């Protein structure tokens, strides 16, 4: 499947997924989080991956500082995972991206609404990975496009996280 099609499915899954609370998806294999707090924009983003969720700590709203951001990811799950990042173009909302995908499920129009900014690549269970991103203010999505044993992409199972760059 083309990368654009995977991203299209990821964004469509955002609408179908239950509302996210905090900055991580909820999954049975993820340990329970303590009370959440909000902090200023981050220059370094530490991510733990599970089946099928992201954990970015005890934050109520993920805010990342514009500029160079170092991403450190640890795979605490039993399957390979990744953290890919896209920016919604200025003035484009997640709802608008999803509406565009409903009109064009192939994802071919996706390049008009988002820009890829990089990611960690596949991280084996128990391993660590990372990336350095250069981001500007706006709305972003982090997602995993790898497929589970049942053939479904991880983002469709909950590995999709919107965040803001300030």
Give the biggest beta sheet: 5 strands, mixed
Outline the low-pLDDT stretches.
Answer: 1-38
Would you count the extended β strands for me?
A: 9
Number of separate helices = 2
Distance between the termini: 33 Å
Count of domain modules: 1
Assign the CATH architecture: Sandwich
How does this structure look, described?
The protein has 166 residues and is of the alpha+beta class. It has one domain: Sandwich (Immunoglobulin-like). 14% of the residues lie in helices and 31% in strands. It is built from 2 helices and 9 strands; from the N terminus they run H-E-E-E-E-E-H-E-E-E-E. The strands form 2 sheets. It has a 5-stranded mixed β-sheet with strand order 3-9-8-5-6. The longest helix has 14 residues. The chain starts with a helix and ends with a strand. 36% of the residues are buried. The N terminus is likely disordered.
Task: Give a topology summary.
Layout: H1 3-16, E1 44-50, E2 53-55, E3 63-64, E4 67-75, E5 84-88, H2 94-103, E6 114-119, E7 128-135, E8 138-143, E9 160-165
Parallel strand pairs: 1-4, 3-9
Antiparallel strand pairs: 1-2, 4-7, 5-6, 5-8, 8-9
Helix pairs in contact: 1-2
Q: What brief labels describe this structure?
A:
single chain; 166 residues; 4-stranded mixed beta sheet; Immunoglobulin-like; alpha+beta; 5-stranded mixed beta sheet
Provide a brief overview of the structure.
It contains 2 helices and 9 strands, in the order αβββββαββββ. It has 166 residues and is of the alpha+beta class.
């Amino acid at each position: 499947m083309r990368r654009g099609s995977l991203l299209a499915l990821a964004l469509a899954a955002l609408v179908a997924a239950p509302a996210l609370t905090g900055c991580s998806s909820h999954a049975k294999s993820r340990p329970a989080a303590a009370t959440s707090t909000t902090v200023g924009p981050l220059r370094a983003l530490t991510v733990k991956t599970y089946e099928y969720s992201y954990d970015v700590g005890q934050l109520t709203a993920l805010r990342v500082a514009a500029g160079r951001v170092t991403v450190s990811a640890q795979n605490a799950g039993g399957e390979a995972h990744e953290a890919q990042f896209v920016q919604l173009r200025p003035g484009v909302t997640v709802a608008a991206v999803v509406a565009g995908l409903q009109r064009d499920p192939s994802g071919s129009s996706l390049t008009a609404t988002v820009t890829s900014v990089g990611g960690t690549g596949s991280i084996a269970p128990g391993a660590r990975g990372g990336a350095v991103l250069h981001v500007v203010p706006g709305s972003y999505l982090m997602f995993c496009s790898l497929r589970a044993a049942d053939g479904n992409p991880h983002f469709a199972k909950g590995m999709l996280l919107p965040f803001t760059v300030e």
